[in-house]
Amino acid sequence: MSRRVRLWLVLTGGAGLAVLLVAACLNLPSFGGDRHPYGDRAVRASIARHTANVVSSVNFDQRAFDTLGEMTILFGAVLGCVMLLRQTRDEHRARPEPAEVAPPVRRYALLVLPVALVTGIYVIAHGQLSPGGGFQGGVVAATALHLLYLGADYRALERIRPLGVYEVGDALAASSYVVLGLAGLLGSTTFLANSLLPYGTFNTLSSGGTVPLLNAAVGMEVACAVVLLLARFLDQAVEIEKENGE
Amino acid sequence: MVNGWTLAATVGLAGGLGAALWGVATGPLRRRVVAQNLATALACPGMLLLAQGYGRPAYLDVGVVLALLGPVGTLVFARLLAEELAEDPPRAWVATWTVAALGAITVIALCVATGPGRAMAKLLVIGALLIGGNVVASRALSGGFGRVGRG
Amino acid sequence: MTRRTALLAAAELLAWWAALAVLWLFLISTVYTLEFVVGIAAAGLGALAACAARRAVTGW
Amino acid sequence: MADAVIVVALLLVAASATVAVATRDPARQALVLSVLGVVLAVLFTVLQAPDVGLSQLAVGSALTPLLLMLTVRKVRRCGRDEEQKR
After folding, report:
1. Does the residue B87 lie in any domain?
2. Which pLDDT band holds residue A75 (cuts at 50, 70, 90)?
3. What's the pTM value of the predicted model, to 2 decimals?
4. C34 Cα to chain A: minimum distance (Å)
5. Between C42, C52, C53, which is nearest A121 by CB?
6. Within-domain flag for B151
7. Which of A21, B25, B129, D73 is the most exposed place for a label (fewest CB within 10 A)?
8. How many structural domains comprise chain C?
């Protein structure tokens, strides 16, 4: 295909997309109106199940099956990364060299690591009460561990990060989501139905039936998955080298 | 719903993040990393003001996460760009302390509006994490990481 | 590990535990039993991580 | 007037996204991307979606820059090794 034809193709496709988008925008309800048919129904269902954060109710109760799909996508993506970035036969591992870090930076990293970890757990635990949830908190908690790489060196991080534990945790959390879904079949005829546990007192940690449990499962899955993903990237960037003698 | 808090947040976010965006888009690397650091330092007080303006204390959690992870992001750049930054280290103490002062003023104003209690303690924790984090991140950018080989 | 270092390590762990439990109290909005239990558990986990991280960096 | 902060956030997102596309060097692009992440989090918050804002902050402020910069480091090191072999 010549350059000219490609340019025409892009222009025609772009113009078509622009026309469709403008046509769709003309039919949108106006910005910030007071009629929200879906919102009203979601809020009503959320309050009926004593879940204070409607977004969590949508994610882990009304559309819990979609979240299972999203979690599986993350699981599969991390699995793919682990396979692609593994150490191949013509590569070897070199010991990472210690980095010279200024003392205030090191102290900051050691101080903020536990604070960020506790904040991550807080965001996971209060997913059904305030903004946040398993995904957000899991990423925060996993990022917290890597302060040890930023504030010290890779060897220090490797000492507190037994990868096998995180692999097992990842798989356990992902499967416990499915098990909780199957348990929903006990009380009703629907997979992932929120009918197993009492809905509890509104606006407490135990409210919302299975929502906090699913939230915790996703939080653990995401935290373990992010640690495993970053471990492969760090291995490649720091430790793994091509053999020189090939 | 317009009140003083949202207005202050609008002005602060427009001016602060606009300037940070200009800084991160142009100039040498040393200017860009400083602008990236100041973007989080300016956005976090804006988030706190918005939480107060909307009357929703739950929105403070966004500020907590930003105050914790913003400086961590700057540390990532300081650590992995250490070689290039060592050749041409950034010197931005005036900007760093000015932004830190803005953050401190915001937190103090919000504390006065909140009154004593655990909510005020939360605001003070956010302020300490934000200001401490950004000063340390600024220090890390200007030679915080010495000789970095393969590590 | 001598008796002295063991005592120091225990004191470090307890100090972190207390500090992180106070942080949890600041983060939450209302206090009740379950919240307290979860907070103590999370603070314990954070304290273990803090001590492990410090040991990984300084080496004892 | 109440929508002023939304307009400001939208303009900032449009500007920083354009800059992120226009920057060529990956390291500098990662810097712009991290500012874009913060601006997007502001936009989500002013549109009353703090859950999404938190997701954006969690991923965009430290994780994405770390993944990108580690990749840049690996690619650069491979390039240096190739040069040494020649």
Report:
1. yes
2. very high
3. 0.93
4. 7
5. C42
6. no
7. A21
8. 1
